[in-house]
Specification:
Blueprint (H helix, E strand, L loop, with lengths): L10 H5 L5 E4 L8 H11 L3 E6 L3 H15 L3 E5 L5 H15 L4 E4 L14 H29 L3 E5 L14 H20 L5 E7 L2 E2 L8 H10 L6 E2 L4 H8 L10 E4 L7
Bound molecules: NADPH dihydro-nicotinamide-adenine-dinucleotide phosphate.
NADPH dihydro-nicotinamide-adenine-dinucleotide phosphate binds next to helix 2.
Amino acid sequence: MPIPVPKANRLLDLLSLKGKVVVITGASGARGMGIEAARGCAEMGADLAITYASRPEGGEKNAKELAAEYGVKVKAYKCDVGSWDSVSGFVNDVIKDFGKIDAFIANAGRTADSGILDGSVEAWQEVIQTDLTGVFHCAKAVGHHFKERGTGSFVITASMSGHIANFPQEQTSYNVAKAGTIHMARSLANEWRDFARVNSISPGYIDTGLSDFVAQDVQDLWNSMIPMGRNGDAKELKGAYVYLVSDASTYMTGTDMLIDGGYTVR
Ligand code: NDP
């Protein structure tokens, strides 16, 4: 059975997430993609299960603030996406606590600066384990639930680095992992075509905790290469996350949304 056309006609009704449960991994930052996606979904009425890995205080604080500001149910969970046991246990806990999952945003990720020649085997494995295998763990853990319910939206935070090899940094492991997630979205869209949609978002350079380590001369170089002349703010992406998890995008699957200030048009 194909995923049906939604009953609602008005755009605000299609975008509404009232009554939906959205999972967002990697939402422990104060200004990252995870917390902004969470703000967007909470604004539109969704209840949220968000995760942290090494920053429990960030995850708990975000959960408390989101619940207070938007009047929705929000719970923070510890989850290491690199571990199957951790992800499957977390997803089971969410289904127990919330009763269901309507959408899953696989956002958690990490980066490491190391090329093939200088980087260690361990550094390679860690990035692939978190950024690529982590998304596989999330999809495998929630996929059966989506199939049983006959509905679901799975959204992956990929990266512009999955399309281009960002310069001058040597981040081959990260680039490869993110390219893999973009193709995972396409492949899963096909695999899950009868019951769930799968899409990815590829942010360009966004000012979040993850990008704080970038040296000023590298940042200046990037600004000269970004047609819009600046980094993005994560709040400029939250509408895209809401759109992809909502019924406003029910005919969209297997697609990657590049949001990069035009970096990749050159
Ligand atoms: P943040 O630091 O805000 O987010 C990273 C999140 O991932 C944190 O919540 C962190 O949890 C979590 N995380 C890291 N490792 C693990 C793990 N093993 N298991 C579970 N969670 C983990 O930075 P961003 O918002 O920048 O990053 C979010 C996503 O956006 C990432 O996938 C990143 O690759 C991607 N991205 C970022 C870009 C940028 O310019 N900032 C550009 C393109 C893509 P904790 O802190 O609790 O350890």
